[in-house]
Write a structure and sequence with these properties.
The protein is an all-alpha fold. The chain has eight helices and no strands.
């Protein structure tokens, strides 16, 4: 089965009634967890982006506190898992500031993590790749935000 284009889907959705749209949305939410998370964001969290970001930061804190610190192997796996979750949450928000803010927060948590990431090349590479990504993303923001996030980025690169 070939998937329809976004334009075709949009035209078809415009022809549907309100009840049909609700049923389609519910069926879509049941199909995959990502769809359900996206609908949750769109319906409940998109109005208050600050609360959305705060919730993700709290989740990041919790995940960092639960990392098994006995070996760098477990730390690497956990850090990658946390980063995957952050990237998935970032996709839900259309605001670029959200992406920059969450990636900077992740880098701050990783930099202050104990045992230090200096002891492991893979963790250092993850950290540096995210710093480079943040630098690219900051360039696309408004000048005032570029300055604010740039100051935070300078602190991270020290």
């Amino acid at each position: 089965m070939k998937a329809a284009t976004i334009r075709e889907i949009k035209e078809e959705l415009n022809d549907k009634s309100k009840i049909e749209l609700v049923n389609i949305s519910l069926r879509l939410a049941k199909f995959k967890k990502d769809n359900k998370e996206l609908l949750t964001y769109l319906l409940f969290e998109s109005e208050d982006e600050f609360q959305f970001v705060t919730g993700i930061k709290q989740d990041i804190d919790l995940q960092f506190s639960e990392i098994n610190r006995s070996q760098y192997y477990f730390i690497k796996k956990s850090v990658r898992k946390i980063l995957r979750g952050i990237k998935k949450q970032i996709r839900y928000s259309p605001k670029k500031e959200t992406e920059v803010e969450l990636l900077i927060y992740f880098c701050k948590k990783l930099k202050t993590f104990s045992p230090p990431i200096r002891g492991n090349r893979v963790l250092q590479n993850i950290y540096h790749r995210q710093i480079e990504l943040v630098q690219k993303k900051i360039k696309a923001l408004h000048e005032d935000l570029q300055y604010d996030y740039g100051v935070e980025l300078v602190e991270l690169t020290r």
